Here is the input.
Amino acid sequence: MKLYQMTAHQLHQLLLRKEVTSREITQSVLQRVEEVEGRIHAFITLTPEMALEQAAAADRRIQKGEAGPMTGIPVAIKDVICTQGVLTTCGSHILENFIPPYDATVTQKLKAAGAVFIGKTNMDEFAMGSSTENSFYGPTRNPWDLARIPGGSSGGSAAAVAADECIVSLGSDTGGSIRQPAACCGVVGMKPTYGRVSRYGLVAFASSLDQIGPFSKDVQDSALLLKVISGHEPRDSTSVDLPVPDYPQALVEDLRGMVLGVPRETFAQGVDPRVAGSVGEAIEVLKKLGAKTVDVSLPHGNYALAVYYLIAPCEASSNLARYDGVKYGFRARGTDDLLDMYQETRWQGFGAEVKRRIMLGTYALSAGYYDAYYLKASRVRTLIRKDFEEAFQRCDVLVLPTAPTPAFRIGEKMDDPLQMYLSDIFTIPCNLAGLPGLSLPCGFTAEGLPIGLQVLGNFFQEEKILRVAWAFEQNTDHHRRKPNL
Ligand code: GLN
Here is the structure.
């Protein structure tokens, strides 16, 4: 096996035993990027010099015996997360020249842990989308089939892990943007409980839904990375002051006593039969490992998409008001006066989907409509959360498909926003409730497209999710399969 193909925990062992240096690992990954990035386009910005400097620093640290699990490990970061001195575009024209003067909390934590930064990954503009086609910088391609989308909005982060262009990566998930691309690309992706990971330095899309989380080649790496990035941060008032569990410790193979809830509505909602088949088989594997299943119901799930497409655009319309060409980012040239400058900057700077969301949100929040739309949606959101609360009285985790279909073709849904929005039908309810969720590979279609199993947990019960996912992985081989590139 090549170094770039390995997981962080495997590389960590080699580093500790001094069988390899971080410099060698980093060079191997950079070489791989050179070979495949022209076909995948997972990155908006590559930072090879920074990576080699960080690798040298990591090697010094390892020599001194001070290495943690992420020391010397090449990571990629979604371009919506601030990195001091490194371009952070959010996939948008309007931030084409934005170099943040500070690091996000997760960036700081990774630096402190001695990680090596390979670059900033491609994404749907401002994380709005499910295919990475809404990037101003062009689409990312799915490593399993270059004619298909990698999912989105964190498509670059998912594809980079799947194509071995980094060892682990970070994404953000507002309505499925970590789990859905993880499913499309055959990797593990986890959205932590809202408040588990600080959003400080994550460029806001919908602040009450956004959460940062890991992508990795296996469950153990997600547990390791989650532990590094979690924790309270006073500069994010929504980050929660709870101790961070030792997530890797939660990985035990035995599922006896675990109760899996199977939401009966999901399988009734027009799921692709190949997805339903693989997820059904996965549930059988979990049962063999000692878990029991119960039928549960999430009766308000039908409203989740409608609720999300009011709440998320409302918050986005407010969050994106700051991009006006004055303090930072792109500014339209040759305009007549201040108002004209604002209008032209925003007209030229934002893509079609972002404009659609801003218009939807502004409309829904306008005087006279607020009660009918935003307020109503907020109330239904509470009902959706209560559905989960009731379900979790009867089970430890929920198991369901991550996405209704495998990765679709590039261009297939670009003219039909509603079809695109339906890609997130199984991931959105978890964000509305604020719960943690993970997607891991559970099968492949006959043409070799990955299928994802989603495991959802109660608030701050990431450990249970990881335990179920790890046990599944230990008894199956899907995570070992690699795309032919
Ligand atoms: N696809 C959903 C949207 O377009 C979710 C995106 C996300 O999670 N950032 O809003």
